[in-house]
Amino acid sequence: MALARDLWIDTHERTYKYIRQRNALQIRQLDLSEIGAQAGHFSFEADDGLSDSIFNVELTLKISLPESWTEDTVSVGPEGEYSYATVLDDERGRYILYNWLPVSGISVQVHDGLLSGTGIQDLEAPRYARSIVAAPNPFQGETLISISGEASPEAYLIVRDIQGRMVREIRDYSGNSYRFARENLSPGIYIIQLIDPGKQGAFLKLIAQ
Fold first, then answer.
1. Structural domain of 17
2. Contact 46, 26 (CB under 8 A)
3. What pTM value is reported for the model?
4. What is the dihedral of CA 118, 163, 188, 179, to 10 degrees?
5. Tens digit of pLDDT for each residue in 166-176?
């Protein structure tokens, strides 16, 4: 479930699907009593056993983290499709929020810190053959996003909020730059992820004021 202070308003159909999926959800391969012994990484499967073609609403998972993890950001997602999630704290400890559509047989991996597009972990100083920068950053109304290196015609950008929810998908940028308008985005931290099938991706932490 999402944070208790949030109010979710949606159609009866989507609300029904969400409740059915949430009630049927089963978590596998995640032993909270042992993840502290799995240095820097653990994985799990989350499946509701329902038909994915009908019950297709993402659930918000609250994933507890070992207290020994020192990074303020983790990489989370299926192998090769990692996104960033900001580490949060409450009275029960450290955790992240991750939106996931329950799919049978797909493992979600959680890594302490940043992962390069090759899946090789580098906690101290992530080095990418490709990178994303934005100027200005922080920004208010608009910022120019620039991507280093050549991108294929299939490349696109995903924008996620600190809870891991995708808030925008950008497929119409030209060349290696994109003029990003804030529009209806609330103040806060956002993660820009470059998706380029078969090539190394890149990430950028963008701050909207």
1. 12-112
2. yes
3. 0.52
4. 50
5. 888 887 766 67
